Amino acid sequence: MDQIRFGILFKTIVLQCFITRNVLSIQKREWLDIPTAKLTEGDVACFSEYMEMWIHRARIEGLGVWLSGVLRIKVNLASLDHLNLQLSACGFSLHKDPDKNFIFRVSYTGCFIQQQHSYHILTLNLVKRINRFGSRPHGVMMKCPVVSVLTSREHIQCDPDHFQVTRQVPFDNWNNELHWSLSLSDHLIVALEDVSLIQMNIDMNGPDITVQGERKEVLSPVKVMETESEFLALKLVSGQYAYSMEATCPKVTTSAAEETVLHIFKRCMGLTKRGSSENEALTVSNVSVNQTDQFTVHETREFVTLIIPAAQILQTKACTDNKQLWQPFYRVDVVLTFKETNHKMHWTMENMLPCTASCAFQLPALSTMFFEQQTGLHAARETRGGTEGRRIRVALSDLLGLFISLGG
Questions:
Q1: Per-residue pLDDT tens digits for 49-83
Q2: Which of 16, 57, 240, 359 is deepest in the core (most CB within 10 A)?
Q3: H or E segment to which residue 20 belongs
Q4: How many Å apart are CA 5 and CA 389, to the nearest integer?
């Protein structure tokens, strides 16, 4: 009896293994044989400045053959960093997802992109392998609506205790209004109605979105080219989309330096892919500053750094809480153009320094124009390190008298 039961059990196990093996084999074959030619618009993710297509690793060989043919380059999928240097000239990039499949990203201004019936279209003539010895042509179309990208405008206001960032509210490529949450440092997600939990306020009335908060609660220290600032690692997120609200505030100092150093965070102009660590590298092609022509530009992968003589932009006003004190402040309006995009980035910084007694305020950092207009005193020119600077030489008594008269 036991032998019979054992025989039945053994046959059952063998039968189950056979069935399972065949089912898995069929499922695997069906999964691998999904024809990518049937990819439609729903399979292509559309963002403000680029579109993306997911490609299974078993199908990537066809894309490699197409890229090598149309770009006349040697495609080595084992070295994506080197490959992307070659692809960037045409607005293409290729990255792996966490499952080792591939994401093919195409800029709307890239090579071979056509505009037809209000759509950006890229046709990929791929090769589909039939068996070990044969293949056949295989067409895939990437397609996204043509939309007018909003002007990339960011207005940052910083004072010793608080910050405020304002940008335009974005819409998707089909002009749909999105339901947003806030993502702080890419891991803390908060609904807009709960932003007080992360010590922030938000206002989305009208075409703009404004976020406010306390510097010490939200901003994080960051060092760019040996200069310390404070960084807001904040994004709006909705489904697959992300929208940068990232910004920097200059480090709070008790006195004004002779040079003002500003860090502008590089960003794509509109909606980007949420969670993507493969952001497009942007290269500055032109910078203009509304307030002055005297500035120096440096850049890293993430930031554009402006160095401006403080005398060109710094002003003072009476402190709100104490009219006997003076508060240095400045406003800078910058327009940046990047090689990789046709759109300009409009960036404004308003920074308030801590209030200070007039006699303790550093004279070299005061606005030359301010003194010339208010006093008519002689401005002596002197050369220092090959750079011509302005120094205002006044007696301390005259300076104090000026502050008293203005304050009165």
A1: 899 999 888 888 889 989 999 999 999 988 999 99
A2: 240
A3: helix 2-32
A4: 101
